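Sequence in, structure out. Go.
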Amino acid sequence: MTNGETADCRKMQSIYFGRVVMGIGRFLGAGSALALAMTSATVQAQSANDEGAATARDDSDMIVVTASKTGAQNIQDVPLAIQVFDGDALKERNISNIGDLVSAVPGAQEGFRQSNGARFYNLRGSVTQNGDSPIGYYLDDTPFVVTNFGIAPPVRFLDMERVEVLRGPQGTLYGQGSSGGVFIFHTRDPDLNDVNLAFETEASHTRGASQLNYGFAGAVSLPIIEDRFAVRVSGGFSRDAGYADAYFGEFDGTPDQTDVNEARNDDLRVVALMKPTDNLELRAQYWRFRPRQDFTGFTSSVDPVYFEDTAGQDSFSNGDFTLMSFTATLDLEPFTITSATSNLEGEFGINIPISPAGFFSSQFKPEMFAQEVRVNSNGAGPLHWLVGGAYQNGSGPQVNALQIPPFVDINADNDTLTENWAVFGEVSYELFDGKLIPLAGIRTYHDDRSFKDGTGVVPTKADKETWRLNLTYIPSDSLTMFVSASTGFRPGIVQSRVQVESLELAGVPAAVALEPESSTNYEFGLKWRSPDNNLNVGLNLYQLEYTNLQTSVTGGIDGVDGFANFGDATTKGIDLELFWRTPLEGLNLSFAGNINDSEYDTVNETIAAAQPLLRPGARLINTLGNNLRFDANYAGEIANDLEAFGNFSVSHSGDRLQADGIIADPYELVGLTVGLRKGDWELALFGNNLLDERGPTFVGDSGPLSGSGPTPRTIGLRLRMASY
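Output:
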């Protein structure tokens, strides 16, 4: 929350997720039975076949990941809750940004959407829009960090090679704390030998809009010195037509303005790749993205979609981010050294009209310098290790203004500064010819952080050690099982003095700088595939325990909420992933889902008395009860190298309990893509939200239909060409 925010804006930023729909106990039992059944089936298959027959498969089907930072690995062998999304497959599934992606990640949720440039996510846990992000975001090897305001990078999947998603604490692998998980975006490298070209253009129509959406994107890769130096340039723009109306006063059925929430997005990426020698790679990258939107993601009603009481004033929520990075990788055969340096500068924020002539404006201007160095072992020997260090120095200035003529004129600027470092590492050793692999990792972190405003500076320090222990059992190429225990850490939220005053008036103990939040994750994981690799199953059972949980609580000043450390909580859940290459050639079915049960264990008695929702045994606010996604994909040749392809998807998000006690109903989104492909060219017809689900997915304070919801039904055409 920001100083001086209006009641509507503050209430919008205190909205949270949903109610648990079923108990976890019977699913834990079912999950254990499934694990035993798969183990038994694998043993029987090995006994019934000649040596090696049970593990026969086509190596071209292997999914390679690099998330463990010890070289490329087959995803089957990685003892982590991990998913990989191929860049081309993302397009066929109509996944073009992180907001689309979370529907396919078990336990992932969007906690809040301020605009198309400021969105907040989490994995397996509670989301707060203030504080450092519980998810680590890496653009290739460099982190994307906005101090004390954990937004996701507004990256579009324009030139994406693959996305890797790790669930659970990952601080012993990555310099960024990553207490909830990590999203790693791997972009396409320049080609050192060949010229590559790619472009796509699309046009679509959204229900309720009077104009078309359109966009264009392209990429070109040029080798300058064969085998040694190449450059890749990619970028694009898109414009989504507005579909919401605006009323200068209250809703009366005759809008004063139409199509007011137009959104625009453009980005440019330039990458230079140099290999002076065969074992040294240098990579420099410039990336700029500009998400812009008229008005915000919250409306007075989602069906019909409109804003009211605007008094004819403009509203916007814009962003402008520039990330520059330089990565050097030196392969010395026994080990590899990687250095990643980056600098992020940005500006984003909102401007909200207040009838009849006022406004609230909050602009963020983050800066972050980051340096990571890693050394990891190479080779096929039994010992594998990684050590690394990270340094960050950044700030998160906020420029806040509230004006309601003739009497209110408030400027409440502030800043959060941080200088932190971490040392981290992991080591593992293969026993019994690689069938049993113990692993241990540790991270130590130090942070000097301070809050600064016109009245002074409040400094804080934090020192924290986190760790991970893992034991992996691989009885065959078809089965991998692991058990792990790991700890996570999130720096304390820094909030304004106005918020502290509001909480104290409500009887809630509060401070400008909160105590850090800690978590411990216990997990059992299983990955099984059939001997022919046509059926793949992933199962994860986890218990996540929070200590000193940081959560939004209602303040005593109308519309001014804040954050407090108030107690402990436990989350239990099941992640399930299925992939089936069916007997019908070209048809694949996939499923990813999560069931999550969470509750408060202990709560500060003073807070429990003032906040009825925050009590022992109550459901954890802002935590999704369940989510799932089903996909059916088809690709097959129909004539003369002409291929037909298609995707049908259904995603479900469970109900959500918000901080104000309102429950947002569950909802489903249906999508469809059908197209033709010949050589490097493809043409596709796509539809998003075909059932025209409106929500709201987050309920506002202006009525049961206020808040935010999915984009209405959108249908369009896309033309693509890719020579790589």
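Check: Confidence is low (pLDDT under 50) at residues 1-60. The first strand starts at residue 64 and ends at 65.
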